[in-house]
Design brief:
701 residues, alpha+beta, 5-stranded antiparallel sheet, 23 helices, 8% strand, elongated
């Protein structure tokens, strides 16, 4: 296939450009929508929301808060701007109700709850312009305006990662120029990766017209697609240039490249895809579809590496090293280069290197034991944003309906169906139990719904939505307070609302994370066992990548949860690790980490099959892949770090976590742990029972 693409380069490139145009046009034609709404059928949150909607639809209407604030005086003392704005809010399309203003004790802050007849996300970001027009009189009167509650879904500025992408691509170009020494060889991986990523993004958009992806899905697909796309093309180009330097003609060199490194690319991409698609096993469609979006990008870049890159190499041919910026170097500088000398050093002291590497990884993983999952609330939004203003004004004001917990109240819904006691008795017991529960700032009196089938009350925590204390209160209410209070009444209570939903989602993710970990480990082990025909190598690879992931988690906790990187990342305060980030990171980190090991181990296996002893094969494998893996890791790290400037905290977390994992894998794992273990195990590295060897399919890399 590689040779065919090299013989017909213009045709292959033309097909890819046509596919790119079709994908981008299809994306625009579909008009995909993205949503972070999570469905948890049978959960307390969803059950409570369903009961509210059935009993009193108005109570279940989507709503958000419009917050008004003045630095001096009172909101009502600034003319009629507030009243005019409220009247305009009531006249907006899709608005079903605007509550009476709730005012703080000092009168400097007030807010109204605006209800809508459809999901707020579906209103689109352009609806904010209508809100701005409606609240303009208040602004003109000197009153500050912020949009809080679920209005953050449309009020947050869309993530613009163009600047970060430009930095990542620019850094990748510099690394490629330094690595290859020629402009043509540097531009080729970048150009083919950009084409394949463009196709991938278009396909993701088209698929999003049928399946609803999370809002971070396009960014995640772009980030991973760009990183692996450049790396895959880099591996192939490096192998091709070495064959050209060794005297092969263009078509033969491209064919050898596709047959060698091309297979490694395919196995690496399949490993990443298996890890990402395993996310569906958690049973949460939002997380599974995040994995699907990234998988689409990875598989398309792999397809480009197997067809578009060979075509580009065939087109350039022996001119690949023209326009030199320095003396071109490909895979190795000889049998006595620095990589071979390093391999001999590790071979003399494998236990020392192994101990040092494991110690470093374990130290990095220590913060993992204080990992706290949660939901990142509006308090982590950029300072000066309308959502951050609304959050801060609500949290800092005094009075009923204000305080930190007012940004994330719980709604308690009691289903009176089957009640063995009167509604008043149930209400009294509920109110009494809530009054005795710590961590609650205020509770509204339980009131019956219009049809009398429910009791509804609002619980305001003393702390903000993303704090550990609010999480503890949620567990206390659902695990003890509510069940104990209603134990012999024949009724059932459900905690609902945005904050309750996020916390229940957190608990669900935590419960299902071991399933994902187990599935990914088993699938990766089986795939590597078939490829390398060994039980020992896949076992070591799985364990090492598990350690790498744990170390990446630990550093992530230190940066975000402990607040070590607040200023560096432009954040105002420490935050918990977003609920689904560990699950996403495990799948992605595990898949990407396996890439470098596959390329290294495949070259070691190739040298072993050529008849070299274990030490020679390891040294040769390190030498042949040393430069290219180092460059690939630098490029992928640069791409990931460029996304840490995103205004979306979840994207920051994933980007930094992936960058850390790449650094650890390309240094500690590849240079210390893998070589030392290969030397310690010797011939046992390739042990496979004869009966199993006969039954496994033969796949060589």
């Amino acid at each position: 296939m590689g040779a065919f693409c090299a013989r017909h380069p213009l045709s292959v490139i033309a097909v890819w450009l046509l596919v790119l145009a079709a994908a981008l046009l299809g994306d625009k034609a579909v008009g995909a929508t993205y949503s972070d709404e999570v469905s948890l059928p049978g959960s307390h949150t969803q059950t409570g929301a369903g009961l509210l909607e059935a009993s009193d639809p108005a109570l279940a209407d989507p709503n958000g808060k419009v917050v008004f604030h003045v630095d001096s005086g009172t909101v009502s003392g600034h003319g009629d701007g507030l009243d005019t704005s409220l009247n305009r809010l009531r006249d907006l399309p899709r608005v079903t109700a605007v509550s009476e203003p709730v005012t703080s004790t000092d009168g400097a802050t007030a807010y109204v709850t605006v209800s809508f007849d459809e999901d707020i996300k579906s209103l689109g970001s352009t609806y904010v312009d209508r809100l701005d027009d409606a609240t303009a009189p208040a602004l003109h009167a000197g009153i500050g305006v912020g949009y809080g509650g679920d209005l953050h879904d449309i009020a947050r500025a869309p993530a613009n990662d163009v600047a970060g992408e430009a930095v990542g691509i620019g850094t990748a170009l510099v690394v490629l120029l330094l690595a290859f020494g020629s402009v043509a060889a540097a531009l080729m991986p970048l150009a083919t990766a950009l084409i394949s990523v463009g196709v991938g993004m278009g396909v993701v958009g088209i698929v999003a017209g049928t399946l609803t992806f999370a809002t971070s899905a396009p960014t995640l697909a772009l980030m991973i697609g760009l990183g692996v796309g450049i790396d895959y093309a880099l591996f192939l180009t490096t192998r091709f240039r070495q064959d050209v330097m060794d005297g092969y003609d263009t078509e033969t060199a491209v064919g050898r490249t596709a047959a060698g490194s091309g297979k490694a690319v395919l196995v690496a991409a399949l490993t990443v895809a298996v890890a990402l698609l395993s996310l569906y096993a958690c049973g949460l469609s939002m997380i599974g579809r995040l994995g699907l979006a990234a998988t689409i990008a990875v598989l398309i870049t792999a397809l480009a590496a197997l067809t578009l890159v060979p075509a580009a190499l065939g087109l350039v041919g022996h001119r690949v090293d023209r326009l030199k910026v320095r003396r071109p170097v490909a895979e190795t500088a000889g049998d006595d280069d620095g990589w071979h000398r390093y391999a001999r050093l590790v071979a003399r002291r494998p236990k020392t290197f192994l101990t040092a590497g494991l110690t470093l990884v374990v130290l990095c993983a220590i913060p993992l034991f204080s990992l706290r999952l949660g939901h990142i609330d509006d308090g982590a939004d950029p300072a000066g944003s309308t959502t951050r203003h609304a959050y801060d004004w609500m949290a800092e004001a005094d009075g009923d309906g204000f305080g930190p917990g007012a940004n994330g109240p719980f709604t308690v819904v009691v289903d009176l169906k089957g009640a063995t006691r009167s509604a008043d008795q149930v209400a009294d017991r509920l109110a009494d139990a809530l009054a005795k529960t710590g961590g609650i700032a205020r509770v509204t009196p339980p009131r019956p719904s219009h049809d009398g089938k429910l009791l509804v009350t609002t619980v305001t925590p003393t702390t903000g939505p993303q704090t550990a204390e609010t999480g503890d209160l949620f567990e206390t209410l659902t695990g003890h307070t509510l069940p104990d209070a209603l134990a012999d009444t024949g009724t059932h209570a459900h905690l609902t609302g945005s904050t309750a939903g996020q916390l229940e989602f957190r608990d669900t993710v935590t419960e299902r994370l071991p399933v994902i970990i187990g599935l990914v480990l088993v699938c990766a082990f089986l795939l590597l066992m078939v490829v390398f025909r060994s039980l020992v190598i896949p076992l070591k690879a799985v364990v090492l990548n598990l350690l790498t992931t744990g170390a990446s988690y630990g550093i992530l906790v230190a940066v975000f949860q402990w607040g070590w990187g607040d200023r560096l990342l432009g954040m105002s305060e420490p935050v918990p690790i977003e609920s689904y980030v560990p699950m996403m990171m495990f799948a992605i980190v595990f898949g990407l980490s396996m890439d470098y090991e596959i390329f290294l181990l495949s070259r070691i296996a190739e040298e072993r099959h050529a008849g070299h002893d274990n030490q020679k094969a390891v040294g040769k494998g390190l030498s042949l892949t040393g430069r290219v893996i180092t460059c690939a890791a630098l490029i992928m790290t640069a791409v990931f770090l460029s996304f840490t400037g995103s205004p979306t905290v979840v994207v920051k977390m994933l980007a930094l976590g992936l960058a850390i994992s790449v650094i650890l894998d390309a240094t500690v794992v590849r240079l210390v742990l893998v070589p030392s273990l290969m030397f310690l195990f010797g011939r046992a590295n390739w042990w496979l029972p004869a009966w199993l060897d006969r039954r496994l399919p033969h796949v060589s890399v």
